[in-house]
Amino acid sequence: MDNNGGKKTLPQLLAVMAALRTPGSGCPWDLEQTFATIAPYTIEEAYEVADAIARDDIAHLKDELGDLLFQVVYHARMAEEQSAFAFDDVVDAIATKMIRRHPHVFGTPEERTAGAAPGFWERAKQAERSAKAGAASVLDDVPAALPALTRAVKLQNKAARVGFDWPSLAPVLAKLKEELSELEAEIATQGADQTEEAVAEEFGDLLFVIANVARHLKLDPESALRAANDKFIRRFHYIEERLAEQGIAPSDSTLAEMDALWNEAKTKGL
Question: How much is the pTM?
Answer without folding.
Answer: 0.63
